[in-house]
């Protein structure tokens, strides 16, 4: 069993949890054996306003589940920034390596 800890800005947690936990429930059924836990609304990573998610399971399962979470974060970030829905999110930066 492996474990991944993911620190997520509060503004996108709803897209990962889903209404009444629907997205989490979907991920539990989609990624068999994964255990997903997240901090309570007012329980933040020290020194931040960010929530803590943990994924426990086999490396393949948590890797795939983490990839889906990352995609959801990117999608929400994109919508908020590019559609000017929030002033809390900064423009993403990308670093390219020229080989």
Produce the secondary structure layout.
Layout: E1 2-9, H1 13-17, H2 22-30, E2 35-38, E3 50-57, H3 59-82
Antiparallel strand pairs: 1-3, 2-3
Explain what this protein looks like in three dimensions.
The protein is of the alpha+beta class. The chain has a single domain, classed as 2-Layer Sandwich (Ribosomal Protein S8, Chain: A, domain 1). Helices cover 38% and strands 20% of the residues. The protein contains three helices and three strands; from the N terminus they run βααββα. The model is unreliable at 94-99 (pLDDT under 50).
Give a concise summary:
The protein has 99 residues and is of the alpha+beta class. Helices cover 38% and strands 20% of the residues.
Q: Whole-Å distance between the termini? A: 36 Å
Q: How many discrete structural domains?
A: 1
SS-derived structural category: alpha+beta
Please state the average pLDDT score. Answer: 82
The assigned CATH architecture is 2-Layer Sandwich
Give the biggest beta sheet: 3 strands, antiparallel
**Can you list the strand order of the major beta sheet?**
1-3-2
Rg from Cα: 15 Å
Number of helices: 3
CATH topology: Ribosomal Protein S8, Chain: A, domain 1
Helix content class: 25-40%
> What is the name of the CATH superfamily?
K Homology domain, type 1
Q: Outline, from the CA principal axes?
A: globular
Low-pLDDT segments, ≥5 res: 94-99
Q: Kindly state the number of beta strands.
A: 3
Q: What fraction of residues sit in β-strands?
A: 15-25%
Order of helices and strands: EHHEEH
CATH class: Alpha Beta
